[in-house]
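Problem: given the chain below (420 residues), write out its structure.
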Amino acid sequence: MWYITHDSITISTAKLGISNLRRSRVSQAQDSVSFSVAGPFDAAPLFEVGDIVGISYKDDSNSQIIQWFQGRVIQIPRAGSGTEESMEYVLAGPWWFLDNLVYQQLWAAAPRLAPADLAQDEEKLGTISTTDPISGQVIVYDKIGVYKSRVILGQKQDGKRMTSAEVITDVINFANAAGAPIQLGNIEPNLKIPYDEQQDVTCAEVIRRMLRWSPDAITWFNYSSEPPTFNCQRRSSLASLTIPVTQTSAIQIIPRDDLVVPAVILKYEQTSSVNGAQYEDVSTDRYPESATGREFGALAATLQLAGSQANYVTQKIVSTEIPQLPAGEAIWWPEHDASCKKQGRQETTIIPGSTSHIGTPLEYELKEGQIQDWMDEYSAEEVTYTAQVRTVTKDEAGNKLKEEIRTVSCTIITTNAESR
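Solution.
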C-alpha cells in the first residue's frame, strides 16, 4: 500500500484517488515525481505549490512504512476534456533547493565594539581585545564575518585549503542551515583542487564544479531517511545490482561510448612578476602524448596557478684600476689634485717616491655607485694618499723665479669591485 504525507498527516494514495505515480532519478540534477488525481480540474488542489510532500509504501515483509520520495510541489497542471477531468502534481526532489540557493562564504569584516549588533548576513567569529594606552582600560571587539556570494572554492574562511569533498560538505551544510530538508551522507571524491573564484553561483553549480574533477562520480538521495540523505560516490565504489529480466517489463540498454573522450589537455597558467614586470608562463599535461586539444570531443581545461614574484636589487658600479705607486704617481696625482697640473708659468712635479697612504687600498678606485651591505663578495676601504710636490715658477723667458715644496693629499674609496 502507498501513502502520501503532508503536514504530518499520512493518507493512502487510494483514498486520495492518486494514479499514474511515476518517479525519475537523475545524478547532479532534480529527481522528480508526478501523479494524477481524477476530479474537477477547477477544484481546490490537494497541495499548493511549495508544499513538501512525502510518498511512502508499506513493506509487505514486515509491514514497515518506508519513505520512497520526498519533494517540493513545483507544478499543478490541470487537464479537462469532454469525458474526464484531472489534476497532475509534479514534485521536485531536494536538489531543487540546491538549484535555487546561491552559495555564500563568510568573509572577515572590520571588528566592532562588543557586543556588536549583527545583521542578518553576519556572524560573530570571536573576540579580540586591546588595552587603551592612556586609561589602561581593556577594550573588547567582536570579530565579524559577513556572508558574500563572491566565493573562492577550495579555500576556507581562515585561508586554509579545502578538498572537493570538503567543499561539497560545506555546500550541503550551508543549504541545510538555510532550511533545505537535506542531510549529509557519504561524500567520496576527495581531491585537492585548484582555487576557483566564482561569483553568484548556486549550490548545485558548486557541486557540479567540484565533480568535474571526478567525472565518474554520481549523486543521489536516500529517501528512506528523514530528511533525505545526500550521497556522492564514484561508480567504481558502488555495489553492483542484479535484476532478473522477468521482473522488468522492458529493457533498454544504451552503451555510453559518447562519454569516452579521445584526448585530455590540461594547461596551467602562471603569471609571474619580476621587478614589477609581469609575464605569463604556460605548461601542459596531455594524454595521449600526441594530443593537441583540437580533437573533436577532447577534454580541455585551463587551470590558473599562483606564479612567482621576484624583485632584484641592483647597484651600478664604476671603478678604475689604481696604478702601481710610486711608478704611476706622475699621471695619477694630477687626476686627483688640480694643483698638481701645470698652470701658466707654474710647473708642478711629484717628488719621486714621496707618495704614501693611510689605510689598506684595494685594487680599484670607486668612481660611481656604492658598495651595499648585500654585496657579500665585495668590500670598500677609505684610503688617504699624501705626496710631496715641487712647484717651480718661471718668467716669460723661462727663467726660474721661485721654487717651493709642499704636501698634497686626497682621500678616495677603494674597492675590489670591477665596473658592472
